[in-house]
Amino acid sequence: MAEAAAALGQFDFAGDDHVVPFQVEGLDVRGRAVQLGPMLDAILERHHYPAPVARLLAEVVVLTVLLGTSLKFDGKFTVQTKGDGPVDLLVADFSTPENVRAYARFDQALLNKAVEAGETEPEQLLGKGILAFTIDQGKFSQPYQGIVPLDGTTLEEIAGVYFRQSEQIPTRVRLAAAELFDRDDAGKPRHRWRAGGLVAQFLPEAPERMRQPDLHGGDGDTGSRPHGDDDAWLEARSLVETIDADELTDPLVGTERLLFRLFHERGVRVYEPRAVFDRCSCSRDKIKGVLKGFSAEEIEASQENGEIAVTCEFCSTTYRFEPAELQPAE
Length: 330
Known about the structure:
The protein is of the alpha+beta class.
């Protein structure tokens, strides 16, 4: 079913936890934008992450949602970092059409040292390593994985490198996360997390206009103008770079208002928003199936107080099993 476009003011605003696809015909740009509120807050508060870790994971969730909602098939999209910094693992899954889960792993002692030293920029917390993008279309196909290095730059910049290397599409990504302290309707102090992001891609009808520059002066470098010199893309990228981090997270700005502010002179169109939800794919049956593959010795070693307890790293749900449940049927 084709997505319906609308002009600003012809519909209710999407609000939090809804991805808004958009198109700017005058600049040959398509993209998606989102503000995450309650969904993200539930993921982060469930684990009580320290603020620097929560902020990093929030950006990864936004990036995963922006890219995952572009899938045109049933499957899963995963963004994962592995580094040698205090936050050594971040992972977020998007399962079509709307389910998100995420978690972070960190070394508390190393994190404390980093905070004391004022080394809390994302690149300092992640360290050197890799950022992997994995697309899994199910059991009848091989997963595709694109890997780019964590090289001391921001997640925004690293995501841009991924698109440059894997999809050959000029892309600009903006990400932001914010920790809010306010009061609820009853006047009680309240702590919340919000995040937002935008991805814009240059997709002109003439393919030669989006030619990518060769990496590091490769053999194909002929000195011709790369995509970055196309006037339309230069304008679009410049507009995207004017976004302030507060605009991506402020609920009073809203996604559609931000898009209007950026592109109204070029005729921005927005499409039907897509809701995303905090939903884990774990289940008792799935975990039981894994445990049934354990040997008798492994089952014995996994017991505590006569039962086996398994806690999902994503949603923190604990599943408990009696050893007899895991024995093969006679």
